[in-house]
Amino acid sequence: MWARATAQPPENKGVLRVNAGLQGGLRFTTAAGEFTIFITAETSSSPSAPGAQAA
Questions:
Q1: CA separation (Å) from 49 to 20, 23, 27, 41?
Q2: Which residues touch 35 (CB under 8 Å, ≥6 apart)?
Q3: How far apart are CA 35 and CA 22, in angstroms?
């Protein structure tokens, strides 16, 4: 899961894990007052940037 503040590069906020019922969650902090959250499917659990398919 990624958080991106306006005019800033995205920050990796961790892996969103889900259970068999497809329920999951993740808690994180950010210094940004406003930000966008987006989720990507990655081949690594600790990528330094979102994959090429991220929009």
A1: 28, 25, 19, 12
A2: 3, 4, 5, 6
A3: 25
Question: What is the C-alpha separation between 18 and 53, in angstroms, rounded?
Answer: 21
| 2 class by beta-carbon count within 10 Å (0-12 exposed, 13-18 middle, 19+ buried) | buried
pTM of the prediction?
0.72
Residue 8 identity (one-letter amino acid) = Q
Say whether pLDDT at 41 is over 80.
yes
pLDDT at 54: 53
The number of helix segments (H) and strand segments (E) in the chain equals: 0, 3
